[in-house]
Each structure stands twice: as C-alpha cells, then as structure tokens.
Amino acid sequence: MVISFAIAAFWFLVFGVSFLRDRRLFKNGIFLVLTLMFAGIGVIFAVDAVSRTAARLLVLAVVVAIPVTIAVLAVFLVVNGVTMLRRERRRLPNLLSLLAGLGIIGFVVFSVLVEKIGWEPLAVVRSMLLGILTYISFLFLCFLVYAFVYSRIRSSRKVDFVVVLGSGLVGGSRVPPLLASRLDRAQQVYERALRRGRTPLLVTSGGQGPNEDVPESHAMAAYLVERGVPEERIIREDKSRTTWENLTFSRNLMVERRPGYRCLIVTNNFHAFRAALTARKARVNGQVVGSPTAAYYWPTATIREFVAILVSHKYLNGGICLLIAAASVFSHL
Fold first, then answer.
1. Which listed residue, 116, 221, 256, 324, has the most CB atoms within 10 A of its CB?
2. Which whole-number Å values give the CA distances from 4 to 10, 60, 135, 142, 258, in the listed order?
3. In angstroms, rounded to a whole number, what is the distance separating the alpha carbons of residues 242 and 6?
4. CA trace torsion 45, 50, 56, 60 (10° rounding)
5. Residue 273, Cβ density class (10 Å: 0-12 exposed, 13-18 middle, ≥19 buried)
6. SS3 287
7. Distance, CA of 24 to CA of 267 (rounded, Å)
8. How many other CB atoms are found less than 10 A from the CB of residue 237?
9. Residues 323 and 301: beta-carbon distance below 8 Å
10. Among residues 98, 103, 106, 105, which one has the least CA distance to residue 78?
11. pTM for the full model?
C-alpha cells in the first residue's frame, strides 16, 4: 500500500513539475494517468487492510467493468458512426467512430475464433494485436484525461491578441456552425478583456480554400463585425491552409505589432489540446481555449485528433509497436 502511494506521489510530482514548465505537453497526460493508476492500486491495498472481502469485491468490479466498458464503447461508437453518416459528408475522417466500433467488435470475434481454432500462428497475431491495441488504448486514455484537464484550466494572464483558427466555409462564403462557435467564444473572451480594462486585438486566421469565394479570415471578420466588434480591432491572416500555418502566420503578425506579445487561441473543444501541442511546436506564446461542439460530432472529432497526434510522432509510436510485435513473436517461440 505504502509503495503504491509512494509511486503515485512520485508521478504526481513529475506531473506537477512538467505542468508548471509547460502545460502544452502530451507527456503530462501520461504522468497524470500513471499517478491515477498507482493511486487506485494503493486504494485497493488500503481497503484490503480494512476488509479483504471489500477489496476483493472492488477488484472484481474493476475486472467486470473492463469488458462491459469495451462492449458499451463499441456499440456507442457504431451508433455514433451511423449518426455521422446521416448528418455529415461521407468522408473517411467522418467514419472514424464507426470504424473504431467495428474494429473493436472485429477483434473480439477474431479472438474467439482463435480460441476455437487453436492454430498457433493465429494466436501469435492475436497476441501482437492485443499488445499494440493495449498500448494505443493507454495513449488514448492519457489523451482523453489530459485533454479534459487542459480544457478546464483557465488562463488569467493578460493577453494582447485573441487568435481564432479557421475551419472552412459553406456555400463559398458563409461561416458554418462549427466556426461560428469559435467566433462566439472569441468574442466572449474579447469582451471580457474589455471589461477588465484591456484592449486586445482579434486575429482571424484562415486562407482561401479551392471551393471558397473569399478567405476564411475575411468571412470570420465579417461575422464578428456584424455582431458589434469594431473592424479596426480585427487582424486578418488570410494565407494559411493548415493549423500549423494558422499559428505560424498569426505569430508573425503578432510579433510585428508587439514582439513580447501574449495571446489566447480559440478553437473547438475537441481540437483544443492538439492545437496547444502545435502552438508549442510553432513557438506561439499562448494557451488554447475551446468552444462548444455538437455532441454527436465530438466522438469522431476526438478520435481524429488522437490519430493526428499519433501520426505526428509516427516514428516513435511505430518503433514501439514494432517492439511490441517482436516481443509477442518471441514469447511464442
């Protein structure tokens, strides 16, 4: 019990130091989840010291909860995927929740068949897949936990700029609900700063896509002006095509006006943590806040963000997956 709590305290200390240095780090989520895991183990040992029966029931509840959670998650993802097909365009990014749900079901069916067939090569494949999926699931848990924590932390420091990231237009020139949510959130931040006696500038960031009549930043600025934001308080960054370009091009505009700037970046809540990771890499001096997203859209968007983070570290994650696969093979020799 003492050892478990000591290990939890160690990881919490590591988390605290890393968080204070820079909250925009994925490894903060790993440290936090390790803290919670060892603290949970410590709780079980503490309960066992009082009542062994209660401790066994607690362990049983955890063991039963794992497959039940997986089953519920699979069904939820499939249902959400069908909803996405009905409400959104049929593009691969919009199919991720459906594919994830079907993938979980497929792996369970495959595992049952392996047990019945009893062929060793299939058992090796299952072991490899289980190891890789366990690793990815752990990272996904870290992502979810820390993205939730990061989104709940409010930055109270003075900012000179409020940067709004673009996300595409509809009909060539109209702001869609997803982007309108970002702009409304940015206006709230801007007006709250005004009430505190501050005078930040708004930066609308987004270039012109192939099916757009105007740059996203111009449509975004027009949306804000219609809602009472003075046009002279808006800077238009109209060259970017990606989140990286949104941030780097906006940074250049901010540095030109105030070299020692501080900013707050606004995007949708599902995108906030990855935007924060990108902002750190782009050396943008600012934190990220999220705006509300439709509930049905959130699962697929969250999976998409996680996949993007995995891909951004493809060599590290690919190497670890290869090591897991190799270990699975050697364990069956």
1. 221
2. 10, 19, 22, 19, 49
3. 44
4. -70
5. buried
6. strand
7. 15
8. 28
9. no
10. 98
11. 0.91
